[in-house]
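Researcher: Good morning. I'm working through a list of sequences from a screen, and I'd like to move beyond sequence-only analysis. For each chain I'm collecting a predicted structure so we can compare shapes side by side. This is the next one on the list. No need for commentary yet; just the structure.
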Amino acid sequence: METTIRISPSVKEKLDKMKIFERESYNDIIELLIEDTLELNEKTKIEIEEAKKRIDDGEFFTQEEVEREIGL
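Model: Good morning. Structure tokens for this chain:
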């Protein structure tokens, strides 16, 4: 089932600029945006968990250590 949505002229203009092919549908563009967002979220979650593990393992530098290292 299809539905109609309202978007502002500025959003439509942005979607138009994202088209790879002239006849590409807005639905195709929105699907790609959703897919990219979900991928990013999953990737970000993994990176956060990896960073937490490094912190727990003491594998990090404090701001003071970094400043000292670069001579600030």
